Amino acid sequence: MNKIMYLSRLVAITSVFLMTMSNNKQLFANAQEAPTAPEITTNQKICSLDPVEDLLPSLPNQKTNSLFSYLAEEGFSRSEDGSWVCYVNDPNKEGRYYTLFKVKEQNGKLIGSSFLDDGNLIVGQDGRSLDFFMTLIERHTNITQENQESVRRYLDAFISLVKDNKIKPSRRGFLFDEPNRALIMYHPLSTGGIKGTAITINIQLSKNVSSYPTQN
Amino acid sequence: MLKSTVKNVTFLFSSLATVLMFCQTANADPKGLNIGAPAKIPPGQESQFLQYQLQNNEAGLRQMRVIPGCVVGFGLRCNKTGTVLEQVIESNGGLTYQQMLIRAAGGEANYQRTLPFYGNNSNLVNSPYMSLWRNHSSQILDSAQYGLGGKLSQNPVPGFREVTKNFLWSGEPAGDLRSGFVNLKLSYGETLLREVAKIPNLNQQIRELNLEPDMTQFYLNNLSRGLNALQTGNKAELRQSILTILSRPYAPNLKDDGWYGRQLVQIPDGLVQPGETLTPNTFTDVATEPLQGEITTEIAEIPGEVGLLSKPGGFDGWLPWLLLGGFLIGLLLLLGGEDGDSSSRAGTQPNPGPSVTPNPGPSDTPNPGPSVTPTPDIPPQICPSGTIRVDNPGNSGGFECITPSTPAKVIEPSTLKAIILVTLIYCLIAYKRRRRHKLT
User: Fold this and answer.
1) Residue B111 buriedness (CB in 10 A; 0-12 / 13-18 / 19+)
2) Is B166 a residue whose pLDDT tops 90?
3) Binary contact (B368, A4; C-beta < 8 A)
4) Which of A87, B247, B303, B307 measures 20 to 30 Å from B55, CA to CA?
5) Is residue B276 within 8 Å of residue A87, measured between CB atoms?
6) Pair type for strands A172-177 and A182-188
7) Would the CB atoms of A115 and B280 count as touching at under 8 Å?
8) pLDDT the model gives residue B5
9) Which residue of A has its CA nearest to B298?
10) Strand A182-188 to A196-204 pairing
């Protein structure tokens, strides 16, 4: 009798375990991605257009406890005004550097930009911009993994339109998520050292997500 | 005894069923972009939605028609008969979608000649599944207007007829972009029907897809209507049935209100709204020099940090499994043993609480606080575990410690969920058992 009990428990618990595992795509994905993901991340930091740079350790900024400190891993550095920035060497002018990516928290809102010097994307900037925006969305919104795929396709479509010159720069922000009030826009730059345009996202930070000490 | 065993087994499997139901309802969340409207944007139609925003920016359009809940197909193919027919053709080793489209367009060369008329729009490849219902209504999200990036012109285009006369559809060759699009769509539909007609046991194969009975019937009806029209050569009927096959999705519980199964979505305000921007800056090489010096001095310090950080990372793939495995084995041992007294049970009860704590939550930023910062005591010649020593020939005797892999994040709640579920079941069993003890 005990054997029957034992077997039935074994079957029940094993099936619950297996079911939870198979239902839990997140866990599966993580367990499977663990060996492959590092290859991608070590080879492609968001803020690096140089394969050698990818091998270098991250900047020392990560000691600061800020909302965006994880970006240090991606080669970003923290600037004095509290924003996190990524500079790139101007491919057309030796010695000139300009902001490629920048992110900042302002009045409970996250603002992240990808800058187009002279209105042109540099090689690889489309993919990196998408990764940059998706990193911010993964970190600062509660959008489910499944719906993040939808967001990725939306942003990808937007960046493709910019790349193909099929969207005019303006101050219009296009909503793609509620209640995070996430917007994307393609706008002209009026101030700053760059004459050109930028792709910018805005995300309303919810209180529990942005409850870090805001020293950013 | 037999009775109690049966009761116990029943109890176990009923809890199993509860968990199963819970998991299924949890998975039934509506998918797609949430724009604050009651319905979500169907997955795969994001670029159409972006076009909807761009094209209706100042128009004040507040209504949108979307295909509700996709069961078969993705994006523009959502729930449409053509999707099912393509699946059947492909599983029988027939032509692919691409091959059928090219055939419909009068061959590869003719398709390539057609493309420039549509501004070399790569989305033309999806045109068979774009809607033209209600006179190309702007409300329909999967319409050609949003699929191709703008309203199609009805003005004659010189030389276009030369291309469209090669389309398979034997109607009047199209002289303008809108009728050209319609002709391409009809040509594709005809090709699809011709290909699917070659398949033996067609209806049986569609039934074997095991879709809902209503859905299967919907697809079978549309198919037989199309095949009949193809056989009899009734052009008007063929046209109508092709449009149904390619543009009308199966929609349960929706009466035909003239919108062909598309659900009305009232768009809230603020779909397009002003946003905030940042300013960039530039600098020249001179400014970077002190910064570079700073970096090199810091590099020596970094490897330890990286190494220490990567330590939990090495277990990333295994830790949840080990924890769960250990927990389960413990549980099984507990349950499998003779009915011991409660004190021995308490003694061996595994405690998953503290062993989970080393893993930070998903939204936590990596905390390089005091616990992680490297101690200066680490001997300079030894790399921390988990890193590889790479000698640097440039620097005399210098070396760097490189982490072979960056730490991948573990989304902990998933593991926790599994543990909680198992614990819940265990608690229920334990409770049951205790009650039985009391009774006997």
Assistant:
1) buried
2) yes
3) no
4) B247
5) no
6) antiparallel
7) yes
8) 55
9) A60
10) antiparallel
Average pLDDT score over chain A: 79
* H or E element in which residue A185 lies: strand A182-188
Nearest Cα of chain B lies from the Cα of A81 at a distance, in angstroms, of 12
Residue A18 host element (H or E): helix A2-23
Query: A70: helix, coil or strand?
Result: helix
Secondary structure element (H or E) that encloses residue A198, with its range: strand A196-204
Nearest to B12 among A9, A27, A187 (CB): A9
| Cβ pair B103, B188 in contact under 8 A | no
CA distance B285 to chain A (A): 5
Confirm or reject contact between A128 and chain B (CB < 8 A): no
pTM reported for the whole predicted model: 0.66
The amino acid sitting at B265 is: V
- CA gyration radius, chain B: 32
Distance from CA of B9 to the nearest CA of A (A): 6
Residue B202's φ and ψ, nearest 5 degrees, are -55, -50
pLDDT score of B19? 45
Beta bridge partners of B390: B400
**B399-402/B388-391 β-pairing:** antiparallel
Burial code of A156-180, b = ≥16 C-beta within 10 A, e = fewer?
Answer: bebbbbbeeeebebeebbbbbbeeb
Q: Do B15 and A12 touch (CB under 8 A)?
A: yes
Nearest to B132 by CA among B122, B143, B119: B143
Question: pLDDT by residue (tens digit) across A158-205?
Answer: 999 999 999 999 999 999 999 999 999 999 998 777 889 999 999 999
Interchain CB distance below 8 Å, A175 and B53: yes
**What mean pLDDT is predicted for residues B158-175?**
92
3-state helix/strand/coil string of chain B: CHHHHHHHHHHHHHHHHHHHHHHHHHHCCCCCECCCCCCCECCCCHHHHHHHHHHCCCCCCCEEEECCCCCCCCHHHCCEHHHHHHHHHHHCCCCCHHHHHHHHCCCHHHHHHHHHHHCCCHHHHHHHHCECHHHHCCCECCEHHHHCCCCCCCCECCCHHHHHCCCCCCCCCCCEHHHHHHHHHHHHHHHHHHHHHCCCCHHHHHHCCCCCHHHHHHHHHHHHHHHHHHHHCCHHHHHHHHHHHHHCECCCCCCCCCCCCCEEEECCCCCEEECCCCCCCEEEHHHHHHHHHHHHHHHCCHHHHHHHHHHHHHCCCCHHHHHHHHHHHHHHHHHHCCCCCHHHHHHHCCCHHHHHCCCCCCCCCCCCCCCCCCCCCCCCCCCCCCCEEEECCCCCCCEEEECCCCCCCCCHHHHHHHHHHHHHHHHHHHHHHHHHHHHC
For residue B11 the two structure tokens come to 């109890």
Which residues 171-200 of A have a C-beta within 8 angstroms of B? 171-179, 181, 183, 185, 187, 189, 191-194, 198, 200
Q: What is the pLDDT of residues A64-102, one digit of tens each?
A: 568 899 999 899 999 988 999 999 988 888 888 999 999
